[in-house]
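Proteins fold reproducibly. Next comes a concrete instance:

***
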Amino acid sequence: MVEHIAADVVVLIHFFFVLFVVLGGFLVLRWPWLAWLHLPAVIWGAVLELFGLICPLTPLEQALRQSAGETPYRGSFIAHYILQLLYPAGLTRSIQLVLGAVVLLVNGAIYGLLLYRRAKRARA
């Protein structure tokens, strides 16, 4: 029972981390100091996707599920939880590359806007 709850907590942490990676730049627009947390998270998320690596939270969750007597899933957190909603066919290498590129492009645009605002303020 404890392992099952712990696995669910890991899933929630993992999910909110993925959201922070993808959309956290919008928080940085409001609170620029968050960039110190967000940029490393973006780099981590992009590297995992672009190089086809598995986040350490995935095997942790799977081990906890196995300890709870559940059958662990195969593949990554994104493939199991998120892509099932967005791409029922499953995770392919091409999709991983697109996801990594989207993370970099969205956050690059947001940080570009942030730098533009800062430069504009400095000129004023």
Remarks:
- Residues 2-123 form one domain.
